[in-house]
Amino acid sequence: MPEQLSPETQELRIQCQQFAREVMCAQDRADPVLARKNIRAASKDLGLFGMTQPSSLGGSQADQLTLTMVRETLAAENAPFMDAVFGPSPGVLGGVDDPLRSSHLLPLLAGEKRGSFGFTEPDDVESPTRGIIQGKTLRVTGQKSYVTGGADADFINTLVQIEDRGPSMVVIDKDLAGVDLEQKFSSLDGSHHAAFRFHDVEVPLTHVIGEPGKGLPRAMRQIGDTRLLIAATAMGYTLWVLELLTNHLKSPDKSGQPRGDKDVVRWRYAEQRIKAYAARSMLYRTARLADSGENIVNEAMAAKVFITEQVGDLVDTAIQLVGGSALIEDHPLAQLYRQVRAWRLAEGASDVLRLNIGRGILELDKGRI
Ligand SMILES: Cc1cc2nc3c(=O)[nH]c(=O)nc-3n(C[C@H](O)[C@H](O)[C@H](O)COP(=O)(O)OP(=O)(O)OC[C@H]3O[C@@H](n4cnc5c(N)ncnc54)[C@H](O)[C@@H]3O)c2cc1C
Asked: What is the mean pLDDT of the chain?
């Protein structure tokens, strides 16, 4: 539970609160490039930047409990430019040897190259992105539809169905002949994505990550790892919204009575606190299980589904209880309404994760209560 953190982690929590208030919130939002640069520099000084990078590659890899606490604390201040705090993590490139280690992994971690993740395909696609091995080359054809940061990336870690081998993760450099950036778009939360088409792209066979045909578990591990971080950030926003709502309900309405005096308002508020309590307990338990070396695939799915759905419901309820002013475009609740919505689809749609959790226990006897 968040109450039982070590003295060092508690100290770090105070430093993160100060960092969020004095560095992140103090940046000029009109100049995001400079703001991100300043935050990155300050994050390195505080030791946050390397926490998502392995020690063997020069990072200061933190355990899941610490990372959970840091993310929750920064989000609980509703601090802007969250994406600038942590350095790029290896993702599916974790553990690769040369040549990919020197050509892509190390430049990625140093911020010299940008990677992206190509997994999702358009709904109307005729066949999955496929590859044929021809000598020392893999010839790739297909489409990917929702590649976050794809337009600015140098390469796409792409799920490719290799003939006679099976699903594999392949590094596709964007400057290769036959890689077409078909569309750039933004989603409701403000993040940027791209759709790609691959026409007979000749990729060096050395760009297959790991063994051909063993890419799906690697891709799913990458997706699974991000579920806990989404849950932690969603939990931080929960704390922020609850504080806003608490202050609002303590303040008087036009009759002079505190807004929270009305039974129905109080009931709705209490309901949100009950769910937030369950969510936070779930989050910290899952982080501790991960650090003890347990397989948390099911628990991370459960935490992601529950916490992203509860923060969506909370923001919606908070807007209802605050009233029309909360819907004015630049009101923080209006902004959070847009921001938290994407999480119920990104890194696994809630319904699909529910199916997986059901399958985990009914068919594989996996998962805890
Ligand atoms: C902000 C954001 C960032 C993203 N970034 C990336 C990225 O970097 N790389 C990437 O590859 N993708 C990315 N995605 C795509 C994301 O992974 C998909 O949107 C998500 O997995 C859902 O897939 P889909 O959109 O194809 O919808 P579908 O799979 O068509 O699902 C739509 C709905 O259909 C139902 N459904 C689907 N399958 C089943 C089933 N088996 N059983 C029952 N019901 C089902 C569910 O209700 C589901 O919500 C991103 C998405 C968002 C919103």
From this structure: 96
Look at residues 241, 358, 222, 233 and name the one whose alpha carbon lies nearest to residue 302: 358
Tell which CATH architecture fits domain 217-364. Answer: Up-down Bundle (1.20)
2-89 carries CATH number 3.40.1620.10: no
Domain 97-101+113-209 falls under CATH 2.40.110.10: yes
Q: Is 115 in the pocket of ligand 1 (CB under 6 A)?
A: no
Ligand 1 centre and the CA of 80: distance in Å?
Answer: 26
Best residue among 304, 352, 353 to mutate for probing ligand 1, ranked by most atoms within 8 Å of CB: 352
Asked whether the predicted pLDDT for residue 369 surpasses 80, the reply is yes
Q: Is the shortest distance between the CB of 120 and ligand 1 below 6 Å? A: yes
Whether 349 is in the pocket of ligand 1, judged by its Cβ within 6 Å, is yes
User: String of b and e for 332-350 (b: at least 16 CB within 10 Å)?
Assistant: bbbbbbebbbbbbebbbeb
pLDDT at 1 over 80: no
